[in-house]
């Protein structure tokens, strides 16, 4: 399907750099690139290539990974490798209702809203107004804000009126919010806590078990890129190692 006006896309140049833009059938000024005729996009589709000043560009619709990568960041985001695990283990899909704690810059919120669309929703309890405003700005770029709502408050005592399929918490002490928020989780619903340190990991795992949550387990995900060249393949000397521990569980009836 050809690109439509107001659609958010990115161009990849010959050095594999990305240039983001919102499609409009007019002259478009693109930061670090210059001005191009937006009418070109009328006849282009995902993966089309074209030339500007003798340089080749390919235009793509973004997936969840690219959207998270392009965020205006304040707080550190949950990385795609961890977000993918959270979506999978919490069974977040179209139509799901998700209660999130901590919007940050909107990284995980972006992945969640994209997954629950078009008939689900994500509601976030965020402690800082500035974080919520930045997350909203990031979501509005692509219309994902249509599936999101938020409230400012402390997850440990905030008044939340909803029934969620999944409760996902990115906060320093999720164990202290369990008594307030777990009643919002439906029987059989899934819970996730994202924490950076092992002492926090122990606290939240024990807190879930004490509250009779079932199938409680914790994981850590490492990611290493492979360097592929003609005549040789080796692991990269750099890797995305520890970013956080992820705790999962399910609520008994």
What would you note in describing this structure?
The chain is α/β, with parallel strands linked by helices. It folds into 2 domains: 8-60, Vcp-like ATPase, Chain A, domain 2, CATH 3.10.330; 65-250, Rossmann fold (3-Layer(aba) Sandwich). Helix content is 22%, strand content 36%. It has 6 helices and 15 strands. A 7-stranded mixed beta sheet has the order 9-8-7-10-11-15-12, with helices on both faces. A 4-stranded antiparallel beta sheet has the order 2-1-6-5, with no helix packed on it. Strands 3-4 form a two-stranded antiparallel sheet. The radius of gyration is 21 Å and the shape is globular. The chain starts with 7 loop residues before the first strand and ends with a strand.
Topology at a glance:
Layout: E1 8-12, E2 18-22, E3 27-30, E4 34-37, E5 48-52, E6 55-60, H1 64-69, H2 80-89, E7 97-101, H3 107-116, E8 121-126, H4 129-140, E9 148-152, E10 164-169, H5 178-181, E11 185-195, H6 198-210, E12 214-219, E13 223-229, E14 232-240, E15 245-250
Parallel strand pairs: 7-8, 7-10, 8-9, 10-11
Antiparallel strand pairs: 1-2, 1-6, 3-4, 5-6, 11-15, 12-15, 13-14
Helix pairs in contact: 2-3
